[in-house]
Amino acid sequence: MARRGQKKHLKRLPAPKNWPIKRKHGKFTTRPIPGPHGKEECLTLALLLREVLGRAENMREVKAIISSGDVHVDGRPRRNARYPIGIMDVIEIKSSGDRFRLVPKIRGGLRLVKIDEAETKFKLSRIQKKMMIPGGTVQLTLHDGKNILLPEGAKPSDYNTLDTLVISVPEQNLMETIPLDKGAYAVVTKGRNVGMEGKIIEIEKRIGTHASTVTVEDPSGNRFQTALEYVFVIGKNKPKVSLGEAGGDAE
Question: Domain limits of the chain?
Fold first, then answer.
């Protein structure tokens, strides 16, 4: 009999290389359910609680924590251990008062940055697509799969692909727009320079087979280039969110 629906298991050896798991410590790990982030760009709540934070030793303990509604993602309780979390998601553990934001990690993967209560009230989301839907309203598709309709009276020309929106959590209301422009502060989400951060010095847009590039200057004054689609703007001239230590994870 043929299988119906998506696989519910994932072996450790073919799991994404940036996952913080021991490859030969057991046979299986948790497969993310379809959600806001793809398998290669996320962690599951089970991985977060068990491998990263050490709050649980096995899946039974993970499910006990999750089912109680103790873990909130972007201001809402998530009760599935396989729920995927990714870049710029806000995670809050109510019982301990711990609050984190996920940001890109140097050499690939994701790292946790501790944040204060004020930072849990908003999230940064990058515009992936802009389109007009029936009725003449402009809809913005964000990097985490959410769709937002432009407020009445807003100019569609003020919102461009790869710009960043500041979204209230958990209401999901549009608070501010941070354009992808010279002088903006950004972090690299993919490629050889993943996890690097700094100010945008130059944007070179190309048409055709050659990819558009961005020149970024890090806090030490070193400059590097990366593809335009790898850049995630996080502030107009300085970071709007905490980035912590670029090299490691939160304790």
Answer: 9-115, 121-178, 185-235
- The whole-number pLDDT of residue 126 equals 97
In whole angstroms, give the CA distance from residue 175 to residue 158.
Answer: 14
Q: Give average pLDDT by consecutive 10-residue segment, the chain, 251 residues.
A: 70 86 84 91 94 92 94 96 96 95 93 95 96 91 93 89 95 94 96 95 83 93 95 94 69 39
CATH architecture of the region 185-235? Roll (2.30)
pLDDT single digits (tens) 153-168: 889 999 999 999 999 9
CA gap 31, 158 in Å, rounded: 38
Q: Which CATH number fits domain 9-115: 1.10.357.10, 3.30.1380.20, 3.10.290.10, 3.30.450.40?
A: 3.10.290.10
Residue entry with tokens 């304790």:
251
Dist CA 88 CA 70 (whole Å): 20
CATH architecture for residues 121-178:
Beta Barrel (2.40)
Q: Which residue reads 């309780």 in tokens? A: 77
pTM above 0.85, yes or no: yes
Contact 164, 232 (CB under 8 A): yes
165-168: long-range contacts, CB 8 A cutoff, minimum separation 24: 165/124, 165/125, 165/126, 165/127, 165/140, 166/122, 166/123, 166/124, 166/240, 167/122, 167/123, 167/124, 167/125, 167/142, 168/121, 168/122
CB 200, CB 228: distance < 8 Å: no
pLDDT digits (tens, 9 = 90+) for 69-118: 999 999 999 999 999 999 999 999 999 999 999 999 998 899 999 999 99
Amino acid (1-letter code) at residue 17: K
